[in-house]
Amino acid sequence: MTDSVFREGGPLNVRKTGEDEYSMSIEVLPDARGHTGRKCPSDGCSPGYFKVKTGTGITQGQTTAYCPYCRASGEPSEFFTEAQVQYVKDVAMREVAQGVSRMFENALGLGPSRRRKVGGGLVSVELSYKPGTLPPVSRPIEEELRRDVVCPNCTLEHAVFGLAVWCADCGADIFMTHVTTECASLSAGLSDVERRRQLLGGRVAARDVENALEDNVSVFEATLGFVMRRSLEGKGRAPDQVNELFDKTVRNAFQSVERASAIYRDHLAINILGSLSKEEQDLLRVTFEKRHPITHNLGLVDRRYLRKVRSGELQGRDVRVTADDVSRAIELTTRVLGNVYKQAFPTPASVQGAP
């Protein structure tokens, strides 16, 4: 057989690059939103998986990509997922199988029917060839990610799990972009409260407001926890020591403005409320305290809440929280977290900087 397994050109743009070497282009198609999965090349990175939107960010001459979670770097081709690599191999093996089948047909001189009659008269032989089943090819199934962000530095659109730090294209520190994007999504939800009140009733609208408050407290808690861990480990504290501090001291303290302030003051010498006036601090504290009866007492005022807030509300009545209250708390939360981050990391890493 003198034929080649591969035919040059075609849908895969096959090209001969050496005596027994070929190259081909196999496209890994994005999902319906234009996002393509990527995986950190570092085995110890968790969660490691993220998505990027093709055509955004660094689109020409990119030589280095980054993991948004741990900032591991490498060539962009090192960030393919296992499923994508397997898909490329499957497509290539299918092309090989088709080429081998074609070579047999040509060697036997078979036509389109894959049959050939040899000889005639009393003695004749009919040759036929039935190719085997081609190797299956399954497109990679990508995970669903709900947190989208656009890098303000290189405009890469990407999606991550939770709160990441680094841009996957330029490697810049964009942690606060993730935080502000998360807070903005809460504010956007609040803007629809009045319409839902008229459409679905007062209780549904009230739950929308209460959920936004709970989510805002969660952003506050998660961000402060993330920043403290990263800061302490950056100062040389062993991960086991940091875990012990969180297990014994922090626990759920970052759900409270007062307790969070005390822990940051004692362990990082950071005043988390330094960017707020006394009136703003009180507003944020009181609004956060309303989360407890909402979460643990069906939204009814209880003694713990009255002891903390010292308001004129009556025990057993619905706690009073409005969309304006929560909207203001979200705005103050964004300012507080931005101030904390600047104090904890005054010189964030650039593309060339260390993580």
Describe this entry's structure for a reader:
It is a single chain. By secondary structure, the protein is of the alpha+beta class. It has a domain at about 175-345. It is about 45% helix and about 10% strand. It has ten helices and ten strands. The chain has helices at about 80-110, 175-190, 195-200, 200-235, 240-250, 255-270, 280-290, 290-295, 305-310, 325-345; strands at about 15-20, 20-25, 35-40, 50-55, 65, 75, 115-120, 125-130, 145-150, 155-160. Strands 3-4-10-9 form a four-stranded antiparallel sheet. It has a two-stranded antiparallel ribbon with strand order 1-2. β5 (about 65) and β6 (about 75) form a beta hairpin. α2 runs antiparallel to α10 (about 325-345) and α4 packs across α5 (about 240-250). The radius of gyration is 30 Å and the shape is elongated.
Concise synopsis of the structure shown:
The protein is an alpha+beta fold and about 350 residues long. The protein has helices at about 80-110, 175-190, 195-200, 200-235, 240-250, 255-270, 280-290, 290-295, 305-310, 325-345, and strands at about 15-20, 20-25, 35-40, 50-55, 65, 75, 115-120, 125-130, 145-150, 155-160.
Features:
single chain; 355 residues; alpha+beta; two-stranded antiparallel ribbon; disordered C terminus
